[in-house]
Amino acid sequence: MAKGLSKRVLTFLILISLVAVAVNLLSTVEAENKKKPRRDVPLVKGLSWSFYQKACPKVESIIRKELKKVFKRDIGLAAAILRIHFHDCFVQGCEASVLLDGSASGPGEQSSIPNLTLRQAAFVVINNLRALLHKQCGQVVSCSDILALAARDSVVLSGGPDYAVPLGRRDSLAFASQNTTLNNLPPPFANADQLIADFANRNLNITDLVALSGGHTIGIAHCPSFTDRLYPNQDPTMNKSFANNLKQTCPTANSSNTQVNDIRSPDVFDNKYYVDLMNRQGLFTSDQDLFTDKRTRSIVESFAIDQKLFFDHFVVGMIKMGQMSVLTGSQGEIRANCSARNTERFMSVLEEGILEEALSMI
Fold this sequence. Notes:
50% of the residues lie in helices and 2% in strands. The longest helix has 32 residues, at 2-33. It has a two-stranded antiparallel ribbon with strand order 1-2. Helix 3 crosses helix 5 and helix 4 packs across helix 5. With 362 residues, it is mostly helical. The chain starts with a helix and ends with a helix. It has 14 helices and two strands; from the N terminus they run ααααααααβαβααααα.
C-alpha cells in the first residue's frame, strides 16, 4: 500500500512539474509574441504607444475579450468593423465622424451612398465597447481609438497579424457632408491610376495601396458594387468561370444579393485575396486592376507567394492610415456616446489630467 501511495505521489509531482514547464513555455511564447511598436513608422504628434497606460491600462484586453464573443456569434462583423475604420479614416481622418448619426444640420456620413452598406450591427458593437470601457475607466477612451483597436482585433481574430496601435486620438465635433464623403472614398470601379493618385495624396505609397487592399480578404460585397463588370458586357480581365458563377449570384445588375470578397477563404485573414487576383478572380475593378497594372503587379505576386511579407506591409499601412488627419491634445472631444456629440463642450478635470499624463509619455 505504501509503495502504491509513493507511486501516486511521484506521478502527481511529475504532473505538477510538467504543468510548470508548460506554463513557463507559454509565458515565454507570449513574451516573444508581445506586440512591439513599429519604430519604422513615424508617429503623429499627440499619439503614443502607451497613451492609456495609467488612465485605462486594460483598454486593449477589454476590447479583445468582448470581440472574441462577438465574432464567435458572427465572424462577418470582423470585416464590417475593419471596413468602418477604412471609411472613417479616408473621409475626414481617423476621428470617428462616420460613427455620428445625422442631426438637424443634415444627414450623417452613414447616409452617403458608399456607406449605405456598412453594417449597422457593427456600429452597435463599437458603442457597446465604449460602454464597457467607460464603465471600467470612466469617459477617457475616445471612440476613434476604440474603432482603431477594434479594427486591429478584427484582423487578429480572423487569423491576421497582431500589432501595436498608437493611441491618443480625439473624436470629431462634426460629420462630413454627403459630397465630401462620396468624393473621398475610392469607388470599387476605380482603376490603378486613380487609386495610386488618391493614395499618394494621403501620403500612402503603392505598396501601402496593395497591402491595404488586402483587407478584402474577408467580408462581402453587394452585387451593384461589381455588376458593371458583368452587364451588359463581361469584363475581359475577369475569369470566365468566375464571371458565370457571379451571374448566378447576381442575375441582374441591381440584385440585392451579396458575394464573398475572397472565394478561397472568405472568413480568414490571409493572402488568398492576392491568389484570387492572379487567377483573375478579383471582385472589383479596384481589386483586379492591381494585378493588371504593371506598377502594382509584382507586389500582388510577392504577397500571393509570401503571406508573412503581406502581413508585415499590411501592418505598416494600417498604422500609417490610422494616423491620417487625427485630432489630438485638446482638439475635438471624447464622446460619451459614439453616435452623438457630447451635449456640452468642456474638458473635465479628469480628462485634463489624463491628457497631461499621456502627453508626458510621448
